[in-house]
Amino acid sequence: MNEKKQLLLNAALKLFVEKGFHGTSTSEIAKTAGVATGTLFHHFKTKQELINSLYLYTKEQLLIAITIDYQDSEQFKSNLKRLWLNFTHFGIEKSDMYQFIIIFHSSPYITSLTKEQAETRFDDLLTFYRKGIENQEIKTVKDEMMVEFFLGTIFSTVNYFTKHPERLNEKNMNLSFELFWDGISK
């Protein structure tokens, strides 16, 4: 990715999380990125295009982070734990990206095409869940319900450790995963 485009995405991410879409001007994004406003419009025709590009970028970064050590040969629970822990660590360590995804996931500023493109990249994760169901390792539930439960426990865990960083340790992270696992395992 072009360095200036990356600077613009980083600045927009920070400002959209802090001030929201309407509270952030394109000139403020350009100034924070250290580039001219015209440079912003060279890379993104509109503010809407910028926010959609940022959404795809953050979702891609999330996917990379959570699947980095996925190993198809591992047991289902081990891989699920890795995915869950990686996602939770992403939420804690990359809080701006995580907050942006949470805030703008249901936003009207993200076009349906952009949402579809982002979700298509996560199709392999649904295939992974379906294997767990087929192998009777987890309860049979609709994909959407499993995704919402997965995300809900991550959201709760990230919130908890954000409020209580002194309690963030391997033991408590493993306990949090086990609470999730107990809810979905057969």
TrEMBL record:
InterPro entries: DNA-bd_HTH_TetR-type_CS, Homeodomain-like_sf, HTH-type_Tx_Regulator, HTH_TetR, Tet_transcr_reg_TetR-rel_C_sf. Residues 25-44 bind DNA. Gene3D superfamilies: Tetracycline Repressor, domain 2. Residues 2-62 form the HTH tetR-type domain. Keywords: DNA-binding. GO terms for molecular function: DNA binding. The keyword Cell membrane does not apply. This is Transcriptional regulator, TetR family.
